[in-house]
């Protein structure tokens, strides 16, 4: 892997650095430093997504076919830094989500930060139509949270609680409201947040104006077809411009990171998460 941006004295071989140092597999510690959360107060919502050259976020309904080995290493590093991983119910069903695992490479770093050994998985769902016998609910290292609205089906809320999941109400209707999701999680000590989608959930975070950072892997593949983009659902009245923070490259994959401009950030827009069923 090599760093393309920001440019440093180790970015290219022209600075006198051997190619074996510039273009090599980064350690997990190096990835953790490269993707460290900003040193600022309050919650920070980061998204991690992958897209083909022609904009497909999935192939045959899953992201794995358009991913790669280094993309998965970065995926693991981002999880290793997060307090909680936020996903939609449909992604849980399609991707076969399991509990986040503790990784020895991040143990000391997480302990020093006061984090549990593994991040909590937070599932957003309006209907709570999920299989509560899955390991995600029955055997997580850190208890799984279910975020929904006050009008969610009472019998499903009870079933979730009996399965051991913590149910968080973050909206007055059936679904949760993105801004309240972030606030409710922060109140429980989950400030370093990572959402892995799916596209409908990411689109709702974008529309509500609560996404702070996007880690986007550009996969050197073409798929055509009608696959979803990385974000779907309702649009924003005015496109919000993000600032490029870094670009890494390996084997044709570009690992980009964009951040919201803190100076231009506005208050979150009230919006109900209706698509995370």
Word description of this protein:
By secondary structure, this protein is α/β, with parallel strands linked by helices. 26% of the residues lie in helices and 21% in strands. The protein has nine helices and ten strands. Strands 1-9-10-8-2-7-3-4-5-6 form a ten-stranded mixed β-sheet, sandwiched between helices. A hairpin with a 2-residue loop joins strand 9 and strand 10. It is globular, with a radius of gyration of 19 Å. The N and C termini lie far apart (38 Å). About 6% of the residues have low confidence.
How do the strands and helices of this protein lay out in sequence?
Elements: E1 2-5, H1 19-22, H2 28-34, E2 44-52, H3 69-81, E3 84-88, H4 89-95, H5 104-112, E4 120-124, H6 135-138, E5 145-148, H7 154-162, E6 166-169, H8 178-187, E7 192-195, H9 199-208, E8 213-219, E9 242-250, E10 253-260
Parallel strand pairs: 2-7, 2-8, 3-4, 3-7, 4-5, 5-6
Antiparallel strand pairs: 1-9, 8-10, 9-10
Short description:
Helices cover about 25% and strands about 20% of the residues. The chain is α/β, with parallel strands linked by helices.
């Amino acid at each position: 892997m090599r760093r393309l941006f920001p440019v440093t004295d180790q970015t290219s071989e022209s600075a006198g650095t051997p190619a074996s140092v510039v273009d090599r597999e980064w350690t997990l510690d190096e990835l953790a430093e490269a993707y460290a959360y900003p040193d600022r107060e309050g919650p920070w919502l980061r998204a991690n997504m992958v897209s083909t050259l022609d904009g497909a976020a999935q192939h045959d309904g899953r992201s794995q076919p358009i991913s790669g080995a280094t993309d998965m290493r970065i995926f693991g590093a981002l999880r290793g830094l997060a307090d909680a991983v936020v996903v939609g119910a449909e992604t849980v069903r399609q991707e076969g989500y399991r509990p986040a695992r503790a990784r020895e490479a991040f143990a000391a770093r997480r302990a020093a930060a006061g984090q549990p050994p593994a991040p909590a998985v937070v599932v957003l769902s309006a209907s709570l139509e999920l299989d509560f016998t899955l390991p995600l609910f029955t055997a997580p290292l850190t208890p799984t949270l279910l975020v929904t609205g006050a009008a969610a089906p009472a019998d499903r809320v009870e079933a979730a609680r009996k399965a051991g999941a913590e149910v968080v109400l973050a909206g007055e209707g059936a679904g949760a409201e993105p801004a309240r999701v972030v606030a409710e999680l922060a109140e429980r000590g989950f400030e370093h947040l990572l959402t892995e989608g799916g596209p409908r959930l990411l689109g709702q975070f974008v529309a509500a104006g609560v996404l702070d950072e996007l880690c986007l892997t550009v996969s050197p593949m073409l798929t055509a077809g009608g696959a979803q983009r990385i974000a779907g659902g309702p649009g924003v009245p005015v496109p919000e411009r993000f600032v490029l923070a870094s670009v890494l490259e390996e084997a044709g994959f570009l690992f980009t990171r964009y951040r919201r401009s803190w100076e231009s950030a506005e208050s979150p827009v009230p919006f109900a998460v209706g698509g995370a069923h």
